[in-house]
Amino acid sequence: MTPITEVEGRRLALSNLDKVLHPATGTTKGELLHYYATTAAAMLPHLRDRAVSFLRYPDGPDGQLFFTKNPPPGTPAWVTTAPVPRSEDPRARQPVIQDLASLVWAANLVVEFHTHQWRMETPAVADRLVLDLDPGPPATIVECCGVALWLRERLAADGLTAYAKTSGAKGLHLLVPLEPTPSERVSAYARALAVEAEAELPAHVVHRMAKALRRGKVFVDHSQNAAAKTTATPYTLRAQPRPTVSAPVTWDEVEETADFGDPERLVLLMDDIAPRLERYGDLLGPLNDPDAAGSLP
């Protein structure tokens, strides 16, 4: 029998709670749902009012993975949806996770959460900039940390404050709160920054995606600032053998990882998040604070 639970007055059917989704740790779907329910206070501000895409992995990371933008079949009528700028379908809509009930509904589908850099009231007008630092083997997140420290100083020179989070996979994300700015302008600035980083750190950075160029270097992916693109939402679990999380980290942790050269220092798992929230609060809280927003030069 499928358990029925009530979340904020909404009845939800939760399925396969004993199913193992992260085989390296034996983490079950029930534990995944508990993680999202207990992390919701920190995660929801980063989801609210933002169209979301899902990377679904219902049978774990070794099963079928598929990316979906449209509301999945069976989406409850009470789940908010919003129009999104997509050239292939001008009528396209995507889900918006506004509350705990919507979060648990989506988590029951077993998904990674990926959000746009703009809010649904102002499509293609970004209120944050993102740089995805992706290491080309044998480089790791250690090399990403060194590049991130350079980018933090470069952004500061333009009056912008950067915050870091793990990707939950191999790399590191830098996020910058912005005054509302057209996505095209943010994209152009981010690309110029990536080009400059490659010019200043040619042995360590590449700004183009071609894999042939990326061996042993950090790809500074600026493309996720395009209005149609999304980035892993803070606190989302990732489809990895271990239940890794795309989670905020301190700049001290970034510096220490660069200094000590140990990529495991920045591997954050599901069970690490509650103690970190208790210790630090939400390190990415300023992303949702208009007073913390900077303006592009």
Which blocks of ≥5 consecutive residues have pLDDT under 50? none
- End-to-end CA span: 58 Å
- Tally of strands: 16
What order do the helices and strands follow?
Answer: EEEEHEEEEHEEHEEHEEEEHH
What quaternary form is this?
A: single chain
Strand order of the largest sheet: 13-14-10-12-11-16
Largest sheet: 6 strands, mixed
**Approximate shape:** globular
How much of the sequence lies in strands comes to: 15-25%
Gyration radius (Cα, Å) is 19 Å
| Number of distinct helices | 6
The level of helicity is 25-40%
Going by helix content, strand content and strand pairing, the class is alpha+beta
Average pLDDT, to the nearest integer? 95
Summarize the structure.
Keywords: Ligase. This is Non-homologous end-joining DNA ligase. It is built from 6 helices and 16 strands.
Structural summary, described in words:
The protein has about 300 residues and is α+β, with helices and mostly antiparallel strands. The protein is about 30% helix and about 25% strand. It is built from six helices and 16 strands. It has a six-stranded mixed sheet. It has a four-stranded antiparallel sheet with strand order 6-5-9-15, with helices on one face. Strand 3 and strand 4 form a beta hairpin. It is globular, with a radius of gyration of 19 Å. It starts with a strand and ends in a 17-residue tail after the last helix. The model has no long low-confidence stretch (mean pLDDT about 95). This is Non-homologous end-joining DNA ligase. InterPro entries: LigD_pol_dom, MtLigD_Pol-like, NHEJ_LigD. Keywords: Ligase. Its EC number is 6.5.1.1. It is an enzyme of class 6 (ligase).
